[in-house]
Design a protein that fits this description.
43% helix, 7-stranded antiparallel β-sheet
């Protein structure tokens, strides 16, 4: 049985000579990975062409069908351990054996096989070969051989690399991590501000340290996540905010850089385009200017900033939610459907990854994230007062029922109802009991939005007013920091009774 583990990342101190050696080894690993990927795809094709496999697809008996599939895999040698044999053979027949050890080579084979296996089960698209400089991580199988962490250094086939430790270690996170046993080591290569930087990720046994400031509440929390918004409601607190709003400024810079790249590409390769702007068919040679390469590096740096900023925002939002409660109810969303309908927004904010991070943090805190069926509960259509389900269009952002429930913002109301879902069924009696205390909380959440973000980025999905452009701000050029809450003034868009809010102390993230 595998034990729990966590990752602790440290930067490496690398000299020019050591950097050159690492670059050679990463490139050798890339070639080895591509060879394993090509061999895995070849064996997959052989397996699918076999008569045994074709008969297994038509077979209706489960046991016989599984036996036939297993036989087809064995005949084509389509397995992880067969690929381990393959990678060992090709590594020892060429100069790569001087750069890559056996454990790291087998891990590369496992990585390639897993990608092809997921493709064979239609869990992902066809995996691609990695171009030069595209392999960014390399790991071992254990801390006993190959890439090792020992005596405070990284040892790998003659390389002894120093680490940059946190001398202050304010919260004791590093001390806690290094006291645990190291399972294996992963080396990561990044390009930061157009320069290569190497990191080491120590996969440690146990659980990471919980910072004292990240307290965990005992309340039950209802969560509603949209393509660009997130709403949270508990028995004592509530908030509605834009989801990863800081990414907006970076995405504008990326879009500008991509337009520059497209114009430069068309200017230097006019013969490769038709009159209507489409690319001519067939294989063609492409020429790129020095400015194109500089802008391409700039776009890559902006993408890296997006990834790092999104990861930080996901962690902060997860910690904020766990402060309210460790048991979290949320809808089981189809992120594939999200991608089809809101591709750009979902690609920037990655709500699926956020739920994964939130689930991990909740489990470590002794809680859990409970997913319930969207189809069975229909919270966006439900009313706990009369029990009637009314289908609403996406443009209708308020719930206002004739039974007296409302008007209340749609996302906040769905998050409120999510607290009382048990076994894919909404407990209307519990919702009715809690509504008297929850209604002023939901109103106050909107009040705080208006007070804290007047004149800043606005979202139409809040249902408060028509979206407007972002006004001028005092953020410095190149900065990626903007306010996380996006709202508009809404006094004219809601009834008088909704504007008179009780004096309730409420903290929002």
């Amino acid at each position: 049985m595998s034990s729990s583990s966590f990752v602790y990342t440290l930067p490496l101190k690398v000299s020019r000579k050591e950097e050159k050696v690492l670059n050679k080894r990463f490139d050798a690993a890339r070639q080895l990975y591509n060879a394993c990927l090509g061999e895995s795809l070849r064996r997959l094709d052989l397996m699918r062409q076999a008569k045994t496999y074709q008969y297994a697809r038509k077979c209706k008996k489960k046991k016989e069908r599984n036996d036939l599939f297993r036989e087809a895999r064995q005949d084509a040698s389509f397995s992880e351990y067969d690929l381990h044999k393959f990678v060992t053979e090709i590594k020892n027949k060429c100069g790569i054996k001087k750069h890559i050890d056996s454990n790291s080579a087998q891990k590369l084979a496992t990585r390639a096989f897993d990608a092809v296996a997921k493709y064979s089960y239609k869990q992902r698209g066809r995996p691609r070969f990695k171009g030069k400089g595209r392999l960014r991580s390399l790991e071992g199988k254990s801390n006993a051989a190959g890439i090792r962490f020992k005596d405070g250094k990284i040892h790998w086939s003659g390389l002894n690399l120093d680490l940059c430790y946190d001398k202050k270690d304010k919260h004791g996170v590093e001390t806690h991590a290094l006291l645990h046993r190291t399972k294996y080591v992963r080396l990561v290569k990044k390009t930061i501000r157009f320069k290569p930087v190497f990191y080491v990720q120590l996969i440690q046994e146990g659980t990471p340290k919980q910072k004292e400031k990240n307290t965990v509440g005992n309340d039950k929390v209802g969560l509603d996540i949209g393509p660009s918004t997130i709403a949270m409601v508990s028995s004592k607190q509530a908030f509605l905010s834009a989801f990863c709003a800081e990414l907006k400024l970076i995405q504008k810079q990326i879009a500008q850089t991509q337009r520059l790249l497209d114009r430069s590409k068309r200017a230097t390769n006019k013969d490769n385009f038709n009159e209507n702007g489409t690319i001519k068919k067939g294989r063609r040679q492409w020429r790129f200017s020095n400015r194109y390469h500089k802008n391409k590096a700039k776009a890559a740096e902006l993408q890296r900033k997006t990834q790092e900023t999104r990861k930080k925002l996901h962690g902060q939002m997860a910690n904020d939610i766990l402060r309210f409660g460790r048991e979290i109810n949320t809808e089981k969303l189809s992120y594939l459907s999200f991608q089809k309908n809101y591709g750009k927004s979902v690609g920037n904010r990655a709500p699926g990854k956020f739920i994964e991070i939130l689930s991990q943090k909740a489990e470590r805190a002794g809680g859990k994230v409970v997913h319930f069926s969207t189809y069975k509960t229909k919270l966006s259509q439900a009313c706990h007062g009369c029990g009637v389900y009314v289908k609403k269009s996406l443009s209708k952002r308020w719930h206002d029922c004739s039974c007296g429930v409302g008007p209340v913002q749609r996302d906040l109301y769905s998050a409120f109802l999510a607290q009382f879902v048990v076994n894919d069924c909404l407990d209307k009696s519990q919702a009715e009991k809690a509504w008297t205390g929850a209604e002023p909380l939901l109103r106050h959440a909107l009040s705080r939005l208006d007070q804290s973000a007047s004149g800043k980025l606005r979202l139409s999905s809040f249902g408060l007013s028509k979206p407007q452009r972002q006004s001028a701000s005092h953020v410095e050029e190149g900065s990626t920091s903007i306010d996380t809450v996006d709202v508009v003034r809404f006094e004219k868009s809601i009834p008088e009774s909704h504007r008179e809010l009780p004096d309730i102390a409420l903290r929002t993230p």
